[in-house]
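idk why but the lab printer keeps eating my pages so im just putting this in chat instead. protein + S-adenosylmethionine:
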Amino acid sequence: MTPERYAKILRVLRLRQPTLSVLMDEVNKPHNLSAILRTCDAVGAMTAHAVPPASMSLGSFRSRMFEASSGSAHKWVNVQQHASALDAIRELQGQGVQVLATHLSQRSVDYRQPDYTRPTCVLLGAEKFGVSDEAAEAADANIIIPMMGMVQSLNVSVAAATILFEAQRQRLEAGMYAQPQLSDEELRRFAFRWAYP
Amino acid sequence: MTPERYAKILRVLRLRQPTLSVLMDEVNKPHNLSAILRTCDAVGAMTAHAVPPASMSLGSFRSRMFEASSGSAHKWVNVQQHASALDAIRELQGQGVQVLATHLSQRSVDYRQPDYTRPTCVLLGAEKFGVSDEAAEAADANIIIPMMGMVQSLNVSVAAATILFEAQRQRLEAGMYAQPQLSDEELRRFAFRWAYP
Ligand SMILES: C[S@@+](CC[C@H](N)C(=O)[O-])C[C@H]1O[C@@H](n2cnc3c(N)ncnc32)[C@H](O)[C@@H]1O
Ligand SMILES: C[S@@+](CC[C@H](N)C(=O)[O-])C[C@H]1O[C@@H](n2cnc3c(N)ncnc32)[C@H](O)[C@@H]1O
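predcted complex ->
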Protein backbone atom coordinates (compact mmCIF):
# COMPACT_ATOMS: atom_id res chain seq x y z
CA MET A 1 0.00 0.00 0.00
CA THR A 2 1.69 3.18 -1.22
CA PRO A 3 0.85 6.52 0.42
CA GLU A 4 -0.68 7.63 -2.92
CA ARG A 5 -2.98 4.63 -2.92
CA TYR A 6 -4.05 5.27 0.64
CA ALA A 7 -4.68 8.94 -0.16
CA LYS A 8 -6.86 7.88 -3.10
CA ILE A 9 -8.87 5.56 -0.87
CA LEU A 10 -9.51 8.39 1.59
CA ARG A 11 -10.43 10.76 -1.24
CA VAL A 12 -12.92 8.28 -2.66
CA LEU A 13 -14.45 7.49 0.73
CA ARG A 14 -15.05 11.19 1.34
CA LEU A 15 -17.14 11.17 -1.88
CA ARG A 16 -19.15 8.05 -0.98
CA GLN A 17 -22.93 8.44 -0.88
CA PRO A 18 -24.36 5.97 1.64
CA THR A 19 -27.86 7.24 0.80
CA LEU A 20 -27.74 6.20 -2.86
CA SER A 21 -28.11 2.60 -3.99
CA VAL A 22 -29.58 0.27 -6.59
CA LEU A 23 -31.74 -2.83 -6.25
CA MET A 24 -31.25 -5.32 -9.09
CA ASP A 25 -34.23 -7.64 -9.40
CA GLU A 26 -32.96 -10.81 -11.08
CA VAL A 27 -30.55 -8.96 -13.35
CA ASN A 28 -28.43 -11.86 -14.52
CA LYS A 29 -26.01 -11.17 -17.38
CA PRO A 30 -22.44 -10.83 -16.11
CA HIS A 31 -21.64 -7.87 -18.38
CA ASN A 32 -24.69 -6.01 -17.08
CA LEU A 33 -23.90 -6.76 -13.43
CA SER A 34 -20.34 -5.65 -14.03
CA ALA A 35 -21.31 -2.41 -15.79
CA ILE A 36 -23.83 -1.54 -13.06
CA LEU A 37 -21.27 -2.08 -10.28
CA ARG A 38 -18.74 0.11 -12.11
CA THR A 39 -21.31 2.86 -12.46
CA CYS A 40 -22.28 2.59 -8.79
CA ASP A 41 -18.61 3.01 -7.88
CA ALA A 42 -18.28 5.99 -10.22
CA VAL A 43 -21.13 7.95 -8.64
CA GLY A 44 -20.26 6.91 -5.09
CA ALA A 45 -23.11 4.46 -4.47
CA MET A 46 -21.89 2.04 -1.80
CA THR A 47 -24.44 -0.76 -1.99
CA ALA A 48 -25.98 -2.77 -4.80
CA HIS A 49 -28.91 -4.76 -3.46
CA ALA A 50 -29.54 -7.88 -5.49
CA VAL A 51 -32.27 -10.47 -5.79
CA PRO A 52 -30.66 -13.55 -7.39
CA PRO A 53 -32.45 -14.92 -10.47
CA ALA A 54 -35.03 -17.52 -9.49
CA SER A 55 -33.49 -20.04 -11.86
CA MET A 56 -30.03 -19.75 -10.32
CA SER A 57 -28.55 -21.26 -7.17
CA LEU A 58 -27.13 -18.78 -4.69
CA GLY A 59 -23.69 -20.25 -5.21
CA SER A 60 -23.67 -19.80 -8.95
CA PHE A 61 -25.09 -16.28 -8.60
CA ARG A 62 -22.25 -15.48 -6.18
CA SER A 63 -19.64 -16.73 -8.63
CA ARG A 64 -21.32 -14.91 -11.51
CA MET A 65 -21.24 -11.75 -9.42
CA PHE A 66 -17.60 -12.37 -8.75
CA GLU A 67 -16.82 -12.98 -12.41
CA ALA A 68 -18.86 -9.88 -13.25
CA SER A 69 -16.65 -7.72 -11.13
CA SER A 70 -13.34 -8.71 -12.59
CA GLY A 71 -12.98 -4.97 -13.08
CA SER A 72 -12.73 -5.10 -9.29
CA ALA A 73 -15.78 -2.93 -8.68
CA HIS A 74 -17.10 -5.56 -6.23
CA LYS A 75 -14.30 -4.60 -3.86
CA TRP A 76 -15.66 -1.07 -3.66
CA VAL A 77 -19.40 -1.67 -3.94
CA ASN A 78 -21.07 -3.93 -1.42
CA VAL A 79 -23.46 -6.45 -2.97
CA GLN A 80 -26.26 -7.26 -0.54
CA GLN A 81 -28.54 -10.16 -1.32
CA HIS A 82 -32.27 -10.29 -0.67
CA ALA A 83 -34.80 -13.09 -0.96
CA SER A 84 -37.25 -11.05 -3.02
CA ALA A 85 -37.71 -7.56 -4.41
CA LEU A 86 -40.73 -6.97 -2.14
CA ASP A 87 -38.69 -7.87 0.97
CA ALA A 88 -35.92 -5.53 -0.07
CA ILE A 89 -38.30 -2.68 -0.89
CA ARG A 90 -40.05 -2.91 2.50
CA GLU A 91 -36.73 -3.07 4.31
CA LEU A 92 -35.39 -0.01 2.50
CA GLN A 93 -38.61 1.94 2.99
CA GLY A 94 -38.45 1.05 6.70
CA GLN A 95 -35.10 2.83 6.77
CA GLY A 96 -36.58 5.94 5.19
CA VAL A 97 -35.26 5.25 1.71
CA GLN A 98 -37.45 6.13 -1.28
CA VAL A 99 -37.51 3.32 -3.83
CA LEU A 100 -37.82 4.44 -7.46
CA ALA A 101 -38.88 1.63 -9.77
CA THR A 102 -37.85 1.89 -13.42
CA HIS A 103 -41.20 0.89 -14.81
CA LEU A 104 -43.75 2.14 -17.28
CA SER A 105 -47.15 2.55 -15.60
CA GLN A 106 -50.00 5.01 -15.18
CA ARG A 107 -48.04 6.86 -12.52
CA SER A 108 -44.61 6.88 -14.22
CA VAL A 109 -42.76 10.19 -14.26
CA ASP A 110 -39.70 11.32 -16.20
CA TYR A 111 -36.56 10.09 -14.42
CA ARG A 112 -35.34 13.68 -14.02
CA GLN A 113 -38.28 14.64 -11.78
CA PRO A 114 -37.53 12.88 -8.46
CA ASP A 115 -35.37 14.49 -5.77
CA TYR A 116 -32.27 12.29 -5.71
CA THR A 117 -30.72 14.19 -2.81
CA ARG A 118 -33.13 12.23 -0.59
CA PRO A 119 -32.10 8.72 0.48
CA THR A 120 -32.83 6.83 -2.73
CA CYS A 121 -32.69 3.32 -4.15
CA VAL A 122 -33.20 2.75 -7.89
CA LEU A 123 -35.00 -0.52 -8.66
CA LEU A 124 -33.83 -2.20 -11.89
CA GLY A 125 -35.57 -5.08 -13.62
CA ALA A 126 -34.36 -8.28 -15.25
CA GLU A 127 -33.17 -8.18 -18.86
CA LYS A 128 -36.13 -10.18 -20.13
CA PHE A 129 -38.96 -9.40 -17.77
CA GLY A 130 -38.34 -6.00 -16.26
CA VAL A 131 -39.70 -4.97 -12.86
CA SER A 132 -42.73 -6.95 -11.66
CA ASP A 133 -46.04 -5.11 -11.28
CA GLU A 134 -46.11 -5.85 -7.53
CA ALA A 135 -42.64 -4.44 -6.99
CA ALA A 136 -43.50 -1.37 -9.06
CA GLU A 137 -46.65 -0.84 -6.97
CA ALA A 138 -44.76 -1.19 -3.71
CA ALA A 139 -42.19 1.39 -4.83
CA ASP A 140 -42.55 5.05 -3.87
CA ALA A 141 -42.55 6.16 -7.49
CA ASN A 142 -42.20 4.78 -11.00
CA ILE A 143 -39.71 6.47 -13.29
CA ILE A 144 -39.01 6.19 -16.98
CA ILE A 145 -36.35 7.42 -19.37
CA PRO A 146 -38.10 8.93 -22.39
CA MET A 147 -37.81 6.66 -25.43
CA MET A 148 -38.09 8.46 -28.75
CA GLY A 149 -37.29 5.60 -31.09
CA MET A 150 -38.69 2.37 -32.42
CA VAL A 151 -37.11 0.11 -29.79
CA GLN A 152 -39.12 -0.31 -26.57
CA SER A 153 -36.43 -0.43 -23.92
CA LEU A 154 -32.81 0.32 -23.12
CA ASN A 155 -30.19 -2.10 -21.93
CA VAL A 156 -30.50 -2.33 -18.13
CA SER A 157 -26.97 -1.10 -17.36
CA VAL A 158 -27.50 1.82 -19.72
CA ALA A 159 -30.74 2.74 -17.94
CA ALA A 160 -29.04 2.42 -14.55
CA ALA A 161 -26.25 4.78 -15.60
CA THR A 162 -28.56 7.35 -17.13
CA ILE A 163 -30.46 7.57 -13.84
CA LEU A 164 -27.43 7.39 -11.53
CA PHE A 165 -25.67 10.21 -13.36
CA GLU A 166 -28.80 12.34 -12.98
CA ALA A 167 -28.58 11.57 -9.26
CA GLN A 168 -24.89 12.53 -9.33
CA ARG A 169 -25.75 15.82 -11.06
CA GLN A 170 -28.36 16.72 -8.45
CA ARG A 171 -26.09 15.73 -5.58
CA LEU A 172 -23.16 17.71 -7.03
CA GLU A 173 -25.41 20.75 -7.27
CA ALA A 174 -26.55 20.25 -3.68
CA GLY A 175 -22.94 20.05 -2.44
CA MET A 176 -23.26 16.46 -1.29
CA TYR A 177 -19.85 15.51 -2.70
CA ALA A 178 -18.22 18.55 -1.08
CA GLN A 179 -18.22 17.08 2.41
CA PRO A 180 -18.11 13.49 3.65
CA GLN A 181 -21.46 11.74 3.94
CA LEU A 182 -19.90 8.98 6.05
CA SER A 183 -19.18 9.60 9.75
CA ASP A 184 -15.56 9.81 10.92
CA GLU A 185 -15.89 6.39 12.42
CA GLU A 186 -17.25 4.90 9.18
CA LEU A 187 -14.50 6.59 7.18
CA ARG A 188 -11.87 4.97 9.43
CA ARG A 189 -13.54 1.58 9.30
CA PHE A 190 -13.84 1.53 5.48
CA ALA A 191 -10.35 2.94 4.96
CA PHE A 192 -8.96 0.08 7.02
CA ARG A 193 -11.03 -2.53 5.19
CA TRP A 194 -10.11 -1.20 1.73
CA ALA A 195 -6.44 -0.70 2.50
CA TYR A 196 -5.85 -4.08 4.17
CA PRO A 197 -8.20 -6.57 2.51
CA MET B 1 -48.14 -3.01 -41.88
CA THR B 2 -50.99 -1.87 -39.65
CA PRO B 3 -52.04 1.79 -39.64
CA GLU B 4 -50.85 1.98 -35.99
CA ARG B 5 -47.41 0.76 -36.98
CA TYR B 6 -47.19 3.25 -39.82
CA ALA B 7 -48.28 6.05 -37.49
CA LYS B 8 -45.57 5.05 -35.03
CA ILE B 9 -42.95 5.13 -37.79
CA LEU B 10 -44.01 8.63 -38.75
CA ARG B 11 -44.02 9.75 -35.12
CA VAL B 12 -40.51 8.41 -34.59
CA LEU B 13 -39.17 9.92 -37.82
CA ARG B 14 -40.46 13.34 -36.74
CA LEU B 15 -38.28 12.98 -33.63
CA ARG B 16 -35.16 11.87 -35.51
CA GLN B 17 -32.04 14.01 -35.03
CA PRO B 18 -29.89 13.81 -38.18
CA THR B 19 -27.35 16.10 -36.50
CA LEU B 20 -26.56 13.73 -33.64
CA SER B 21 -24.41 10.62 -34.07
CA VAL B 22 -21.74 8.43 -32.52
CA LEU B 23 -18.43 7.17 -33.88
CA MET B 24 -17.35 3.83 -32.42
CA ASP B 25 -13.61 3.31 -32.79
CA GLU B 26 -13.03 -0.45 -32.71
CA VAL B 27 -15.76 -1.09 -30.15
CA ASN B 28 -16.11 -4.84 -30.54
CA LYS B 29 -18.23 -6.62 -27.93
CA PRO B 30 -21.65 -7.52 -29.33
CA HIS B 31 -23.49 -6.55 -26.14
CA ASN B 32 -21.86 -3.12 -26.21
CA LEU B 33 -22.60 -2.58 -29.90
CA SER B 34 -26.17 -3.64 -29.29
CA ALA B 35 -26.65 -1.40 -26.25
CA ILE B 36 -25.18 1.61 -28.08
CA LEU B 37 -27.47 1.13 -31.09
CA ARG B 38 -30.51 0.87 -28.81
CA THR B 39 -29.53 4.09 -27.07
CA CYS B 40 -28.98 5.86 -30.39
CA ASP B 41 -32.47 4.83 -31.45
CA ALA B 42 -33.91 6.02 -28.13
CA VAL B 43 -32.51 9.56 -28.45
CA GLY B 44 -33.17 9.79 -32.16
CA ALA B 45 -29.60 9.51 -33.42
CA MET B 46 -29.80 8.16 -36.98
CA THR B 47 -26.24 7.11 -37.69
CA ALA B 48 -23.64 5.10 -35.80
CA HIS B 49 -20.28 5.50 -37.52
CA ALA B 50 -18.03 2.53 -36.91
CA VAL B 51 -14.39 1.68 -37.43
CA PRO B 52 -14.15 -2.13 -37.43
CA PRO B 53 -11.61 -3.61 -35.01
CA ALA B 54 -8.21 -4.00 -36.69
CA SER B 55 -8.12 -7.68 -35.76
CA MET B 56 -11.42 -8.43 -37.42
CA SER B 57 -12.35 -9.00 -41.04
CA LEU B 58 -15.03 -6.73 -42.40
CA GLY B 59 -17.28 -9.72 -42.94
CA SER B 60 -17.10 -10.93 -39.38
CA PHE B 61 -17.57 -7.38 -38.07
CA ARG B 62 -20.69 -7.11 -40.22
CA SER B 63 -22.11 -10.32 -38.83
CA ARG B 64 -21.19 -9.30 -35.30
CA MET B 65 -22.99 -6.03 -35.89
CA PHE B 66 -25.95 -7.96 -37.12
CA GLU B 67 -25.91 -10.33 -34.16
CA ALA B 68 -25.54 -7.29 -31.90
CA SER B 69 -28.72 -5.80 -33.17
CA SER B 70 -30.98 -8.76 -32.63
CA GLY B 71 -33.02 -6.21 -30.68
CA SER B 72 -33.60 -4.85 -34.19
CA ALA B 73 -32.03 -1.45 -33.50
CA HIS B 74 -29.91 -1.84 -36.64
CA LYS B 75 -33.06 -1.43 -38.70
CA TRP B 76 -33.59 2.03 -37.26
CA VAL B 77 -30.00 3.21 -36.86
CA ASN B 78 -27.76 3.29 -39.89
CA VAL B 79 -24.30 1.80 -39.28
CA GLN B 80 -21.74 3.51 -41.50
CA GLN B 81 -18.27 2.01 -41.76
CA HIS B 82 -15.03 3.94 -41.97
CA ALA B 83 -11.46 2.84 -42.58
CA SER B 84 -10.05 4.76 -39.63
CA ALA B 85 -11.14 7.09 -36.86
CA LEU B 86 -9.05 9.92 -38.34
CA ASP B 87 -10.74 9.56 -41.73
CA ALA B 88 -14.15 9.63 -40.13
CA ILE B 89 -13.34 12.64 -37.96
CA ARG B 90 -12.08 14.69 -40.90
CA GLU B 91 -15.11 13.74 -42.97
CA LEU B 92 -17.51 14.74 -40.22
CA GLN B 93 -15.69 17.98 -39.51
CA GLY B 94 -15.81 18.74 -43.22
CA GLN B 95 -19.60 18.56 -42.92
CA GLY B 96 -19.60 21.04 -40.05
CA VAL B 97 -20.05 18.43 -37.33
CA GLN B 98 -18.22 18.91 -34.02
CA VAL B 99 -16.55 15.69 -32.88
CA LEU B 100 -16.40 15.22 -29.11
CA ALA B 101 -13.89 12.57 -28.07
CA THR B 102 -14.51 10.76 -24.78
CA HIS B 103 -10.95 11.00 -23.57
CA LEU B 104 -9.04 12.16 -20.54
CA SER B 105 -6.45 14.77 -21.52
CA GLN B 106 -5.17 18.20 -20.56
CA ARG B 107 -8.05 19.81 -22.40
CA SER B 108 -10.88 17.50 -21.25
CA VAL B 109 -14.04 19.19 -20.04
CA ASP B 110 -17.03 17.81 -18.15
CA TYR B 111 -19.40 16.12 -20.61
CA ARG B 112 -22.20 18.49 -19.61
CA GLN B 113 -20.34 21.55 -20.92
CA PRO B 114 -20.55 21.22 -24.73
CA ASP B 115 -23.48 22.54 -26.72
CA TYR B 116 -25.17 19.40 -28.04
CA THR B 117 -27.73 21.35 -30.03
CA ARG B 118 -24.95 21.90 -32.59
CA PRO B 119 -24.29 19.12 -35.13
CA THR B 120 -22.42 16.65 -32.93
CA CYS B 121 -20.72 13.27 -33.12
CA VAL B 122 -19.60 11.51 -29.93
CA LEU B 123 -16.39 9.51 -30.41
CA LEU B 124 -16.26 6.33 -28.30
CA GLY B 125 -13.17 4.19 -27.74
CA ALA B 126 -12.54 0.46 -27.74
CA GLU B 127 -13.23 -1.54 -24.57
CA LYS B 128 -9.55 -2.20 -23.92
CA PHE B 129 -7.70 0.72 -25.43
CA GLY B 130 -10.02 3.69 -25.42
CA VAL B 131 -9.71 6.54 -27.94
CA SER B 132 -6.25 6.94 -29.50
CA ASP B 133 -4.27 10.09 -28.71
CA GLU B 134 -4.27 11.11 -32.40
CA ALA B 135 -8.04 10.79 -32.69
CA ALA B 136 -8.50 12.72 -29.45
CA GLU B 137 -6.25 15.49 -30.77
CA ALA B 138 -8.10 15.68 -34.06
CA ALA B 139 -11.43 15.99 -32.27
CA ASP B 140 -12.96 19.40 -31.58
CA ALA B 141 -13.08 18.76 -27.85
CA ASN B 142 -12.35 16.07 -25.28
CA ILE B 143 -15.06 15.26 -22.80
CA ILE B 144 -15.13 13.17 -19.67
CA ILE B 145 -17.77 11.88 -17.30
CA PRO B 146 -16.62 12.62 -13.74
CA MET B 147 -15.47 9.45 -11.96
CA MET B 148 -15.69 9.61 -8.18
CA GLY B 149 -14.80 6.04 -7.32
CA MET B 150 -11.88 3.63 -7.34
CA VAL B 151 -12.49 2.22 -10.83
CA GLN B 152 -10.90 4.19 -13.68
CA SER B 153 -13.49 3.94 -16.41
CA LEU B 154 -17.08 3.13 -17.22
CA ASN B 155 -18.37 0.51 -19.60
CA VAL B 156 -18.41 2.06 -23.10
CA SER B 157 -22.17 1.65 -23.67
CA VAL B 158 -22.83 3.20 -20.28
CA ALA B 159 -20.61 6.18 -21.13
CA ALA B 160 -22.34 6.54 -24.51
CA ALA B 161 -25.77 6.62 -22.90
CA THR B 162 -24.80 9.07 -20.19
CA ILE B 163 -23.61 11.50 -22.85
CA LEU B 164 -26.42 10.89 -25.35
CA PHE B 165 -29.10 11.50 -22.72
CA GLU B 166 -27.40 14.79 -21.83
CA ALA B 167 -27.65 15.63 -25.54
CA GLN B 168 -31.31 14.59 -25.48
CA ARG B 169 -31.92 16.82 -22.45
CA GLN B 170 -30.37 19.86 -24.16
CA ARG B 171 -32.21 19.21 -27.41
CA LEU B 172 -35.53 18.74 -25.60
CA GLU B 173 -34.99 22.08 -23.86
CA ALA B 174 -34.13 23.71 -27.19
CA GLY B 175 -37.33 22.40 -28.79
CA MET B 176 -35.48 20.21 -31.27
CA TYR B 177 -37.88 17.29 -30.78
CA ALA B 178 -40.90 19.56 -31.15
CA GLN B 179 -40.61 19.85 -34.91
CA PRO B 180 -39.13 17.53 -37.55
CA GLN B 181 -35.40 17.87 -38.16
CA LEU B 182 -35.72 15.88 -41.39
CA SER B 183 -37.02 17.54 -44.53
CA ASP B 184 -40.42 16.50 -45.91
CA GLU B 185 -38.66 14.62 -48.66
CA GLU B 186 -36.42 12.75 -46.21
CA LEU B 187 -39.41 11.93 -44.00
CA ARG B 188 -41.18 10.37 -47.00
CA ARG B 189 -38.09 8.47 -48.10
CA PHE B 190 -37.41 6.98 -44.65
CA ALA B 191 -41.06 6.22 -43.99
CA PHE B 192 -41.14 4.19 -47.18
CA ARG B 193 -37.90 2.37 -46.39
CA TRP B 194 -38.97 1.55 -42.81
CA ALA B 195 -42.48 0.54 -43.71
CA TYR B 196 -41.57 -1.69 -46.68
CA PRO B 197 -38.17 -3.21 -45.94
C1 LIG C 1 -34.61 -4.58 -21.15
S1 LIG C 1 -35.51 -3.83 -19.89
C2 LIG C 1 -36.88 -4.90 -19.59
C3 LIG C 1 -37.78 -5.01 -20.77
C4 LIG C 1 -39.07 -5.75 -20.46
N1 LIG C 1 -39.48 -6.39 -21.67
C5 LIG C 1 -40.14 -4.77 -19.97
O1 LIG C 1 -41.03 -4.51 -20.75
O2 LIG C 1 -40.06 -4.29 -18.86
C6 LIG C 1 -34.56 -4.19 -18.46
C7 LIG C 1 -34.54 -3.09 -17.45
O3 LIG C 1 -33.86 -1.96 -17.96
C8 LIG C 1 -34.37 -0.78 -17.38
N2 LIG C 1 -34.90 0.09 -18.46
C9 LIG C 1 -34.89 -0.17 -19.78
N3 LIG C 1 -35.43 0.85 -20.47
C10 LIG C 1 -35.78 1.80 -19.57
C11 LIG C 1 -36.37 3.10 -19.66
N4 LIG C 1 -36.70 3.65 -20.83
N5 LIG C 1 -36.58 3.77 -18.50
C12 LIG C 1 -36.22 3.24 -17.33
N6 LIG C 1 -35.67 2.03 -17.18
C13 LIG C 1 -35.44 1.31 -18.28
C14 LIG C 1 -35.44 -1.22 -16.41
O4 LIG C 1 -34.84 -1.44 -15.15
C15 LIG C 1 -35.88 -2.55 -17.01
O5 LIG C 1 -36.49 -3.37 -16.06
C1 LIG D 1 -13.41 1.01 -20.86
S1 LIG D 1 -13.13 2.53 -21.59
C2 LIG D 1 -11.44 2.48 -22.14
C3 LIG D 1 -10.47 2.32 -21.03
C4 LIG D 1 -9.03 2.50 -21.47
N1 LIG D 1 -8.23 1.70 -20.60
C5 LIG D 1 -8.62 3.95 -21.37
O1 LIG D 1 -7.85 4.26 -20.45
O2 LIG D 1 -9.02 4.77 -22.18
C6 LIG D 1 -13.93 2.40 -23.13
C7 LIG D 1 -14.58 3.66 -23.59
O3 LIG D 1 -15.65 4.00 -22.72
C8 LIG D 1 -15.83 5.41 -22.71
N2 LIG D 1 -15.64 5.88 -21.31
C9 LIG D 1 -15.39 5.13 -20.22
N3 LIG D 1 -15.32 5.89 -19.11
C10 LIG D 1 -15.56 7.16 -19.50
C11 LIG D 1 -15.66 8.43 -18.81
N4 LIG D 1 -15.49 8.53 -17.50
N5 LIG D 1 -15.93 9.52 -19.55
C12 LIG D 1 -16.12 9.43 -20.88
N6 LIG D 1 -16.04 8.28 -21.57
C13 LIG D 1 -15.78 7.16 -20.90
C14 LIG D 1 -14.79 5.97 -23.65
O4 LIG D 1 -15.35 6.05 -24.93
C15 LIG D 1 -13.72 4.89 -23.62
O5 LIG D 1 -12.90 4.93 -24.74
